[in-house]
Design goal:
Blueprint: H1 2-38, H2 40-50, H3 56-60, H4 70-75, H5 77-100, H6 104-114, H7 122-152, H8 154-164, H9 170-174, H10 183-190, H11 192-216
């Protein structure tokens, strides 16, 4: 009963935090809308700073640096395979013995004890524990298979490594994001007072609803 009450209180705190975040956001929207109606030129000065284009290509440049780590491991595949297999077997045996002695609730409590600064409901800790166990188990099984191939079937390992090591530049994936869409901004700038009135009315309506919601709670 106490645990359920604690979970409810935590959820209420998250909801309150989110509602107040919406309140401040809509209050800011009201201020922007009033500025657009009263003094559109002030908004033009503000948007000249906020509308600067920031390319993601510069931020993604470190990701496009290729680092070759396969030279040593593929040069001695049997040694690498034996090390990987031993590590995977150790994780499966020791981890299995450890997990068998814990039920999901105890595992969730263990995670909660490790991450003491995180206040989450018990049910979420249980789900995180199960997800962590499944993730580690699948990773160890995959490592065991890779180690076995490196130890006994290097031809298959090379066949699998070829498509896996194919380089994919982040520029291809960032191209759709690099396209600037400013048609809506231009429409707003042509009629700043009309759009300012629309933004102010909508933001005020949402702000009043949120304040009433907080007041009722």
């Amino acid at each position: 009963m106490e645990t359920h009450l604690t979970d409810v209180i935590i959820l209420q705190n998250y909801v309150n935090w989110f509602v107040w975040l919406l309140v401040f956001g809509n209050a800011f929207s009201v201020v922007v809308g009033v500025i657009m109606m009263v003094s559109p030129e002030q908004l033009q000065a503000l948007t000249s700073i906020t509308d600067r284009w920031i390319s993601l290509r510069k931020l993604a440049q470190p990701l496009d640096a290729s680092v070759n780590t396969d030279t040593l491991s593929l040069k001695y595949p049997r040694v690498a395979g034996a090390i990987i297999m031993l590590a995977a077997i150790y994780i499966l045996i020791q981890g299995g013995l450890f997990v068998i002695g814990l039920n999901p609730e105890q595992g969730g409590q263990l995670l909660q004890h490790i991450f003491t600064g995180r206040s989450l409901p018990i049910a979420i800790w249980d789900v995180l524990w199960l997800s962590l166990v499944i993730f580690i188990f699948l990773g160890a099984v995959f490592a065991l298979l890779v180690g076995a191939m490196a130890l006994f079937n290097q031809v298959m390992l090379h066949k699998l490594a070829t498509p896996a090591n194919r380089w994919e530049s982040s520029r291809k994936w960032l191209e759709p994001v690099e396209i600037s869409h400013s048609s809506f901004d231009q429409t707003v700038r042509k009629n700043p007072r009309i759009w300012g009135a629309i933004i102010t009315i909508l933001a005020l309506y949402v702000l009043i609803v949120l304040i009433l919601f907080v007041g009722v709670k």
